[in-house]
Write a structure and sequence with these properties.
By secondary structure, the protein is an alpha/beta fold. Among the domains are: 132 residues; 151 residues, P-loop containing nucleotide triphosphate hydrolases (Rossmann fold); 178 residues, no CATH class; 128 residues, no CATH class; 93 residues, no CATH class. Helices cover 32% and strands 14% of the residues. It contains 30 helices and 34 strands. The chain has a 22-stranded mixed sheet. A 5-stranded parallel sheet has the order 2-3-4-1-5. Strands 6-8-7 form a 3-stranded antiparallel sheet. Helix 24 links the parallel strand 18 and strand 19. Helix 15 runs parallel beside helix 17. The longest helix has 41 residues. It is globular, with a radius of gyration of 32 Å. The N and C termini lie far apart (65 Å).
Length: 1042
């Protein structure tokens, strides 16, 4: 990204003030020169906002800004060096004083030499700044802006909410969406049809395709739905792998295009819809997908979005051009994005005239309208403020590519300087890249884009607010895919036009090399940030870029090492990202990168870290997740005094972490804290950490602890000071050679002392707890007070606890999974909490998803008094009012669902698997989707008036329908008035009974949509009532039903 001078200089001034307040500045003897530097920066800072704004139109200002940026980068490096070396000298003086050790002659000369060198550098810097300040007087158009103490920025905790909402507004696009859905579900005899959505960038092609993809009728008609983003730089094998996995297939060991093509044909065994978003070339169809789709076992539809009509035409697609929005639809979109659900009609009407003019300025492009809406949302709702936006001269920025609407640049210009930096940084990622929120936040923190604040608010929290505001301003798009299991807002994308804008604005300082771009770098250009995409060779010229601050290498098997010579030349690196490469080791010279803040080694083959890593005193983020070859950390890691994030999860197999980790007081993310140390023979030693190390880590937001069975008993809660903890994961493993009663009592004592004292706790996960009673802090009747913000709980393999905690007390709990609780025989009113079980109050007020898995001995489930009659039943209306999904998997002894479940009025999905003793499913009035498999004693399924989707896995050993299913389907018109789709997986003999001449054909003939398939999916029947269609691979397909 390009340096934003105003923000960068402000941060440099803050760093100077911080350093000059320390004793270290006196040790170096450079305080006077630093004060002079600070005063010059403060004088010039008032002109920087104007300079950044006008540099694009005035080459003289641009030259001045470029020169000043070079000086400021050098200043930042020098200030860094002062802080590092000054603190080192101070520590040396302190340690010598403590042992009355005199200063050696060599040390004395080294100290004097460094003071002289650093003093000379600062004086040279001041001279250069003085010359630039004099040159500024020759630029009369620069305006001075008074800088208050409170710099304009993100208003903390008053940012835009992350929402994923439809942008389908106006009859124009609504009619287009309706027409395209109808076209796609219309039956014909073609193996496949291609529909091309064509239009210019930012016009809403992807929005329209997304609306079609998520339409309920599409979901009903296409059992396989795949969304794949193609973009300009796609890899053929990776695209095939993505489509195969999305279709429910497995790639196995297949690597070639031919092997993957065959797997794709096999995976498309049911009716399918494939959306190929952002197609630039026809070869994705001609050379890659046409043959596998032609050979697929089922028929389907393909939707493409493209800017090029010729691409769609050459693919023989039915072309649907997307036009610009009309004024009325554009105003509706602007209004929706600015005002949301606000119904202040009078206020909105007063702004309509200006709003329509702004829509016209946006050329009625949806993307431009949305980003301008982000600008307007940050302004007062007044005609004065809206007119300022309308009449801004930024609309006509002449240097922009004609493809980039002026609205995008205006939206960028309206950002506070710190947000500009965050936005531009996203250009370092490939086109259409799905970016993780946590990843961006850590990069922004490491780059220094986030200003430190006083109090309990940490930089990561402020960076998260920046992320939310960029999404709220529509400059980043939230990306959600249920297959990833992410919470809304955890990932995002950047529209390619916005990315093009960011690349344009950062072209002098940052480079992304990807696709067919040349990997040549002009050695005369002072590149600060370099990101290299996949399948791009690392350029040799990189070694000449001595000013490089960020280096992101491709996630490629070809990247196997970082050369020692490379690190020796790139001494000013702040960020190194080599995640996903085959790197096995780091050179010792890594310790010379004194400015390094962020080191990402996730998913590499790294075997060990050199001890020299302890020299990286500025390192804030160390990512080692998924490093399966890494078994130990060096002791020197405890010297990383500024470390904020240490990630060791995702398959990293550490046996222990070094003692002394508790000295890293800035840690706020600690993933996989391994307790104790086992030398491999089962013997414990004192090399590893114990729980007391955690007592000093008061800033923790995320903490996962492993091997708690190794912990020594503690006297007080080790988490007593972690008041801001949000995620806690506790894991233990039962020791095979330990005496069971002693081990059980000991683990219970340890867990009791792990009571989190944070009311901010949102996620709790307990794995493999082998005590016979959950920790006392979980069994408390005051859970609703102690853990008022808990939203997600997982209790996994807690196999010895016969009673669950009163989790119904938790007021904000949304997700609950109980897995492997094998000692539980009954779940009763104690699960709800004392007030609900007594018939008063509420239980599970916000719970949306409830999952029970591997409950071998669970026999009875009841809600106690709320299942009674008369007055006692009133409390039932407050039980599970928000529950949407109930999942029961392998609960073989459970005899019945609780009667009170009928009061869960939001329950829409019930999934039951291997529940052998269940006899009845009855009276669930709101249920829409039911999946049943391996329930051999089931006798009745009834009173499911709103059921729309029925999916049954039938016993393989029988040739006849189960009686309960036969009765249900025979009564379908009356008993299942809303049934839309019936899916059955069964044996081949039973499958044949549903053919048109079979005994069960009349049963399914009345159901709107039917899919019956053999286990293993080798044979199938598909039937649609309207329009009539019948397909099977058992007999010849017919066009319509009789």
């Amino acid at each position: 990204m390009a340096m934003i001078l105003d923000a960068f200089v402000g941060r440099s001034i803050d760093k100077l003030l911080e350093f000059m307040a320390e004793e270290t500045s006196m040790v170096l003897g450079v305080k006077d020169e630093l004060k002079k530097l600070q005063r010059t920066m403060e004088r010039m800072r008032g002109f920087l906002e104007s300079a950044e704004r006008k540099r694009h139109a005035d080459p003289n200002i641009n030259t001045w800004v470029t020169e000043l940026k070079d000086i400021m980068y050098d200043a930042d490096d020098i200030i860094d060096l002062c802080m590092i070396e000054g603190r080192k000298l101070l520590e040396d003086d302190t340690s010598r004083s403590a042992v009355r050790h005199p200063l050696s002659l060599f040390s004395c000369f080294s100290c004097v030499k460094f003071r002289h060198e650093i003093g000379s550098k600062i004086r040279e810097l001041n001279d250069r700044l003085k010359q630039v300040e004099e040159d500024r007087s020759k630029l009369p158009t620069l305006e001075y802006t008074e800088k208050d103490v409170q710099v304009r920025g993100v208003n903390h905790r008053q940012t835009f909410p992350i929402e994923v909402e439809s942008d389908i507004v106006g009859t124009q696009i609504e009619e287009a969406a309706e027409s395209l859905v109808e076209s796609l579900i219309r039956e014909d005899n073609k193996k496949y049809r291609i529909l091309g959505i064509v239009g210019m960038g930012g016009i809403g092609k992807t929005t329209l395709a997304s609306h079609i993809y998520n339409d309920e009728r599409i979901k009903e008609n296409f059992l396989i739905r795949v969304w794949a983003c193609v973009s300009q730089e796609f890899s053929e094998t990776e695209l095939l792998q993505e489509i195969i996995r999305a279709a429910g297939g497995s790639c196995g060991e297949a690597k070639t295009k031919a092997e993957l093509g065959a797997l794709l044909s096999s995976a498309l065994s049911k009716s399918f819809l494939i959306v190929l978003d952002d197609v630039w070339r026809t070869d994705v169809w001609e050379d890659l997908l046409r043959s596998p789709l032609k050979s697929a076992r089922a028929s389907g539809r393909i939707v493409i979005t493209t800017r090029d009509t010729n691409v769609a035409r050459n693919m023989r697609a039915e072309i649907h051009p997307v036009d610009k929005m009309d004024k009325d639809s554009g105003w509706k979109l602007l209004r929706k994005k600015v005002f949301g659900d606000d119904d202040e009609e009078e206020e909105i009407s007063s702004l309509k005239e200006i709003g329509v003019q702004i829509v016209e300025k946006c050329d009625s492009l949806p993307l431009a309208i949305k980003v301008i809406a982000g600008v307007l949302r940050s302004k007062d709702r007044s005609t004065i403020e809206w007119n300022k936006v309308l009449k801004s001269d930024v609309w006509s920025m002449s240097q922009l590519d004609e493809e980039l609407p002026g609205a995008l640049f205006l939206s960028y210009e309206n950002l506070p300087s710190n947000l500009k930096q965050c936005f531009l940084y996203c250009s370092l990622f490939p086109e259409d890249c799905i970016m993780r929120r946590d990843e961006l936040i850590r990069y922004w923190v490491a780059e220094g884009f986030v200003k430190r604040t006083q109090g309990d608010i940490i930089m990561e929290d402020i960076a998260e607010d920046c992320y939310r505001e960029l999404i709220g301003r529509n400059l980043l798009q939230p990306y959600n895919d249920d297959a990833w299991g992410d919470l809304p807002g955890n990932r995002c994308k950047m529209h390619d036009l916005l990315r093009s804008l960011a690349l344009f604005l950062t072209r002098d300082e940052s480079i992304f090399l990807g696709g067919e771009q040349s990997s040549n770098i002009n050695p005369l250009t002072r590149i600060r940030r370099l990101s290299i995409g996949e399948r791009v060779e690392v350029p040799h010229a990189i070694k000449q870029q001595k000013c490089l601050r960020t280096l992101m290498l491709p996630s490629s098997p070809e990247t196997k090492m970082i050369e020692n010579e490379l690190l020796e030349r790139l001494r000013f690196l702040r960020i190194i990202a080599v995640n996903g490469t085959q790197i096995e080791r780091l050179p010792e010279s890594i310790g010379d990168l004194l400015h390094l803040r962020h080191l990402n080694l996730d998913g590499t083959n790294i075997r060990y870290l050199p001890e020299s890593i302890g020299c990286l005193v500025n390192l804030q983020i160390l990512m080692l997740s998924g490093c399966s070859s890494l078994h130990a950390l060096p002791k020197a890691i405890t010297k990383l005094c500024n470390l904020r994030c240490l990630r060791l999860g995702g398959g990293t197999r550490l046996n222990h972490v070094p003692k002394g980790l508790g000295k890293l007081k800035h840690l706020n993310h600690l993933e996989r804290f391994v307790v104790g140390h086992n030398d491999g023979t089962g013997t414990q030693d004192d090399e590893g950490c114990d729980l007391e190390e955690l007592q000093s880590l008061t800033q923790l937001r995320f903490l996962s602890i492993m091997n708690l069975e190794r912990a020594q008993p503690v006297r007080a809660s080790v988490l007593a000071n972690t008041h801001s903890l949000r995620t806690l994961i506790l894991t233990s493993n039962q020791l095979e050679d330990a005496e069971e009663a002693i081990a059980t009592r000991r683990i219970e004592e340890i867990y009791n002392e792990l009571s989190p004292r944070s009311t901010d706790l949102e996620t709790l996960r307990i794995n493999s707890f082998f005590g016979t009673r959950f920790p006392s802090w979980m069994m408390s009747p005051f859970l609703d007070v102690s853990f008022s913000n808990l939203t997600s709980i997982q209790l996994n393999d807690c196999k010895s606890c016969p009673q669950l905690p009163p989790l119904g007390l938790l007021p904000l709990l949304k997700y609950l999974r109980i897995d492997g609780a094998r000692a539980i025989k009954t779940i009763g009113p104690e699960f709800l909490g004392p007030r609900a079980s007594a018939g008063a109050g509420t239980a599970f007020l916000k719970l949306e998803v409830l999952e029970f898995c591997l409950m071998d001995n669970w026999e009875e489930w009841s809600f106690g008094m709320v299942e009674g009659v008369g007055e006692e039943r009133k409390g039932a209306s407050k039980l599970l009012p928000c529950l949407k999904k109930l999942f029961l998997w392998y609960c073989p002894k459970l005899r019945a669902l609780p009667e009170g479940l009928r009061h869960a009025t939001s329950l829409q999905e019930l999934d039951i698997y291997v529940t052998d003793n269940l006899i009845e499913i009855d009276n669930l009035p709101s249920l829409k989707s039911l999946h049943i498999e391996s329930c051999p004693r089931l006798e009745h399924v009834k009173n499911l008036d709103r059921l729309q989707y029925l999916d049954v896995g039938h016993p393989t050993e029988t040739e006849h329908l189960s009686q309960w299913l036969l009765e249900l389907l025979q009564n379908a018109p009356a008993a299942l008035q809303n049934l839309k789709k019936f899916t059955l997986t069964c044996s081949l003999p039973l499958l044949k009974t549903f053919l048109k001449d079979g005994p069960n054909w009349p049963i399914i003939q009345r159901i709107p949509q039917v899919r019956i398939q053999e286990y293993g999916e080798s044979s199938y029947i598909e039937y649609t009532k309207n329009p009539p269609a019948f397909k099977t691979d058992l007999v010849e397909s017919k066009e319509s039903a009789d």
